[in-house]
Structure formats: structure tokens, C-alpha cells
Write a structure and sequence with these properties.
The longest helix has 29 residues, at 143-171. The protein has a single domain (2-171), classed as Four Helix Bundle (Hemerythrin (Met), subunit A). With 185 residues, it is mainly α. It has helices at 2-21, 28-51, 57-80, 87-106, 116-124, 126-135, 143-171.
């Protein structure tokens, strides 16, 4: 069931990305509905996996990989439309590649090794997409341009936090592992 929820989000990637790149492709209500569906499936897929004892390393990679594709291509579409910086999707791709590579090969873990900043970046990558979609709601009037500009500035802030996350993850192996006094001899 958890992988089904993730699959729903995966099928939304291309239409949502194209809707950000071409604002007339989908109506605003449809775009907001697809974003809401993506966020709800992202929220519940992990919960369902844990509650049904179906959480696996492969499922985690599928979930995080789908999130990566969704936000990266959505933000690339927004960048194409001039509503986000084009640097952000590139940096997200670098950060995700680093996340996967160092989890499996550097640390030799059997599952993805999350970082505090990387986790929060992953959540906040959805925010400019929601703000851009809301900026297209005509009923919001003058709030629309404000949301559009705020999403653009937020995308620049996410560039900085993504760079910080990349640097933090790169420096993590250089830090001494924490001392654990378990059964000192």
C-alpha cells in the first residue's frame, strides 16, 4: 500500500512539472489538487509502511527518489517559467546524488542515511511550488504577485540551504565519530 501511494506521486511528476513550465496547461484548481495529492501521499506513504511493517530500504529509496523527481522537475518547470531560480533544481540533483552515494557507498549503509538539514530541505522544496500555484489563483488578487515573488526569493534561500547541506554532508566523514562508552573495559 505504501508503494502504491508513492507510485501515485510518481505519476504526477510530469504533468505537474509541465504545468509549472506552461501555466495554461492545467487549471489552477487542478494544479493545486495535484500538489495536495502529492503532499498527502508523501506524508502517508512512510506512515503506512511503518504501521504495516512493510518499511524497507528499497521502499525508502523509492519514496525519496520520487520526492526528488517531483520537486526537482516541478522547480525546473517553475524556473523555465521564470518563477524560481534555475540553480535550485541543479543543486537538488547534486544533493540527492550525494545523499544516495554516501549512504550506500561511503558509509556502506543498507538504507539512506538522512541528515537534519537535508530532511528539512526536502520538506521545504515543496513550499515554493505551493506558493507559485497559489499565486495563480485569480481570487487572491494582489496577493498573487506577492506569493510569486516570495516563492522566487524562497528558491534563492533554498539554494543557500542546499549548498549548506551539501557542504555539511561532505564534511561529515571528516568529523570524528561520537564516543560511545558502552561496556568500557
Amino acid at each position: 500500500m505504501a508503494n502504491l501511494l508513492t507510485s501515485i506521486r510518481l505519476f504526477l511528476v510530469l504533468p505537474v512539472a509541465y504545468a509549472f513550465a506552461q501555466p495554461g496547461f492545467l487549471g489552477v484548481a487542478a494544479l493545486l489538487g495535484l500538489l495536495a495529492l502529492a503532499i498527502v501521499t508523501d506524508y502517508f506513504d512512510g506512515i503506512v509502511a511503518r504501521r504495516t511493517n512493510a518499511a524497507t530500504a528499497g521502499g525508502q529509496l523509492f519514496d525519496h527518489g520520487t520526492d526528488f523527481l517531483f520537486v526537482t522537475l516541478g522547480l525546473a518547470g517553475a524556473a523555465y517559467a521564470g518563477q524560481a531560480t534555475a540553480v535550485l533544481p541543479v543543486l537538488i540533483a547534486v544533493a540527492f546524488a550525494q545523499y544516495v552515494l554516501d549512504s550506500y557507498w561511503l558509509y556502506r549503509e543498507k538504507r539512506l542515511r538522512m541528515s537534519f538539514l537535508g530532511r528539512w530541505n526536502g520538506i521545504f522544496y515543496f513550499v515554493p511550488l505551493v506558493m507559485i500555484a497559489l499565486s495563480r489563483v485569480e481570487l487572491l488578487g494582489p496577493l498573487g504577485p506577492f506569493l510569486s515573488h516570495a516563492a522566487l526569493y524562497l528558491s534563492y534561500g533554498l539554494v543557500l540551504s542546499t549548498i549548506a547541506s551539501i557542504i555539511d554532508r561532505a564534511l561529515a566523514p571528516l568529523r570524528a565519530p561520537p564516543f560511545h562508552d558502552s561496556q568500557a573495559c
